[in-house]
Amino acid sequence: MSDERFKNLRREYLETPVPDFLIYDGWVNVRLKLTPRSYSFVRLFAGRFVMAVLILSLIFTVAVTSSQAAAPGDFLYPVKVASQNVYSRISGDVKSPIENRIQDVIDSIAEPDENLDEAIKHYENTITNSKNRIRSEELKEQFKATLVQQEDKLKHLNEQNDSEKRREMISELIDRTSEVRGEVKGEKETGDKHEQEETRGPRD
Amino acid sequence: MDDLTQLIILAQEGDRDAYGKIYGVYYRRIYRYCLFNTRSRELAQDICQETFVKAWKALPAFSLKKGSSLQAFLFKIARNLIIDISRKKKTESLENYHGLVSEEDLEGQIDKREENKVLRRAISELSEKERQIIVLHYFEELSGAEIAKVVGMREGALRVRTHRTLKKLKDLIEKYV
User: Fold this and answer.
1) Are A129 and A100 in contact (CB under 8 A)?
2) Contacts of A37 in chain B (CB under 8 A)
3) Model-level pTM?
4) In this predicted complex, what is the ipTM?
């Protein structure tokens, strides 16, 4: 096929006369039929927004699920703590988050210092936040009983602990637990000094 | 950013005046493309108008990424409307196109017109997709990528199809001559 044939026909094609209506009134007629853009625009972005929410939800679900196996020092550990705190707030359970955090402290006793520090920090935050959150007398009693249990666990942990530095860290944690328990009672001073001395456990 | 891109962005945000300028740039091309395919001035006029109404609705979804083409976007809408209408109404032969183009028939142009008539007849024998490939490539001078978008083919497949179509056209012309 020669291009010359097409050129001749193209010339004829381009000479196609356009009706007067399209030249003078065509746009006016089209403009009247144009729907306001806002509707389409909102619909377009609503679709993108829904897609973004779905993707974020998926990422969030995967992160929360994966974080449940995280230990102090892990990248996802703060996510695990946050998710368990949210769950306890929704369910009104004051006991579980404290028990979970003390278990993390127990599990981290043989870990490097920074991991134990992080576990202690999250435990302290949890008991402080729980103390500030609870209002009913029933929950306060439950909270105090839970703290007593944690003190016992920490004392037991210190009895088995050979490292003086670690014993000191745990003793401070026992003091802090006792202090928070005292604050729930409404006492200005921290718990019984004699009782606190006992909680420090054996010294080298 | 060129002027057309700016007009597209404004139109996507709802600026009808900007869209009016886009209409001014393309309406002639869309009209003659519709006329060539429908053989009816009234129908071509209606499809041309409807193309711009539909394009306005679809414009927010039009991507301004590299390789995108507004003319391919408009021709594709026009082609779909032509296909919809041709399903309802059997189109007339393209051979009649000559009478629609011009009433003038100068003596010196008779041979060329005869030649064009043969080519038009051959084009009218092609399938709808093959006809669009020829019109968009040789008359509207769209790029391969743009034609591929309009007819819904990959560029590689389009090249093969174009080659076969030209051979088919050559055979048809030889038959008519």
Assistant:
1) no
2) 12-14, 60
3) 0.56
4) 0.81
